[in-house]
Structure formats: structure tokens, C-alpha cells
Amino acid sequence: MDTSSRSLIILCTVLAACLRLAAAGWSQGTATFYGDADGSGTMGGACGYGNLYNAGYGINNAALSQTLFNNGASCGQCYLITCDRSRSGGQWCKPGSSITVSATNLCPPNYGLPNGGWCGPGRPHFDMSQPAWEHIGVVQAGIIPVLYQQVRCTRTGGVRFSIAGSQYFLLVNIQNVGGSGAVGAAWVKGDKTGWIQMSRNWGANWQALSGLVGQGLSFAVTTTGGQYLQFMYVVPGWWQFGMTFGTNRNFAY
């Protein structure tokens, strides 16, 4: 077999592999890492989850570029990521490895760099915790090409509601969401009220412009996957701002 024939076969093989990946729902992006080697530097973030262990997300997390973050609507979503050996930089991949991460933060554009850097507008990029990133890449590289797809989130335990705000409004961080991982709509009900529609304030924080201090609280949530659940009487009337209340229910899709 001559060199041109071998080259053609290799090209066709690569193209076929790319077509299979596209059909399987994979998209191309890039990935870096931030924080410390133990991942502690990724706690907190633009979704408002605070301590990611307490909130149910742990160390396998990532900050999403502006395009993927979608103004916080992607908070909590899960992504399966693998290093893409077919593209430039693929020599830094760990073959046969992938990792599922939860979206917990925003990687903002850096307009000191051309086009806002890797997290600039239009670029699908994951700035991952170092432990998660090292599942798929060699740390000396710093940045690798990846393939990713959104996948179903499997969480331990039920959905959690962390209460903040003031006597005039309620701010609730909705955590540990399974299924699609992200909240599409939310409602709150006090002991003395009907259901009140909430709106996204920032990240995974949802607000109700009502004074509900002293009332027991129930919640209803619809995920971006379309599943609706009610969480009745999960917050007793003696709650205080700063408290978090767990449930025994979670989403499947």
C-alpha cells in the first residue's frame, strides 16, 4: 500500500470517528483548571452554592465560560468531558479517560486578552477543579481540547434549600438537584399564603418578593428537564436566615 493510500485511509477513519461523536451528542470545547491541587480553591462561586461538599457537589466541579453558563441557568448541570486526542494539544490527553463534572461557577471573559481569552464570548470552555482535570489531562499542559456533552446528574440524598434574604424578601439557593441538575422554575408557599412564583436572582438563587419570616415554607420546583416536584413543609416556622434544609426527594430527569 502506498503512502497516499494510507493517508486517505487514516483521514477517512478520523472523519468517521468525528461523525460518530457528533451523532452521539458530543461537542468540541477546551478545558483548563483552577484552584489548588486539592480543589479547595473552587469552593463558592457564581452559582452561590458555598461549600460544595455541603451543597452536594464535591470536588468534581467546573466553572463554565460565559456561553455555557447562560447567566446562571446552567448552574448544577452535569457534563461528561473527555480529552480530544484528534485536535491540537491532544498529546496531553490521558487516553481512555473521562470525567463528569457539575457546573458550580462562572469563568468570566478576560478582555485583557484577544477575544476575551478562553472564556470569551462564543467559546465553550470548562475551567475545572485540578483533581477533575487531571482525570483527563497531563497537568503540565495547562489547557487541553475536549469533547463534552450534558448528562443526567445523580445526586446523593434529596434537594436542599438554603435560606437567605430579609424580612421583605426571600432568597433561596436550591442545591443538590438531580436529573437535569438545573432549576427552570420555582415557587414557595408559606403557611399563610398560596403558591408564590419565584424568579432567578443570580446563579442558583431564587427570590420571592414577599415577607415570609415566621411561616413554615414549602417549595415547588421544575427542572430544566421538565420534571415537577413539590417539597411540602420542608422548612419549619422557626427557621432563620442562613439555615439550610434538606429533603428526601430528588429529580430523575
UniProtKB/TrEMBL annotation:
Belongs to the expansin family. Expansin A subfamily. Residues 1-24 form the signal peptide. This is Expansin. The keyword Signal applies. Keywords: Cell wall, Cell wall biogenesis/degradation, Glycoprotein, Membrane, Secreted, Signal. It comes from Sorghum bicolor. GO terms for biological process: plant-type cell wall organization. Its main location: secreted. Residues 44-158 form the Expansin-like EG45 domain. The lineage of its organism: Eukaryota, Viridiplantae, Streptophyta, Embryophyta, Tracheophyta.
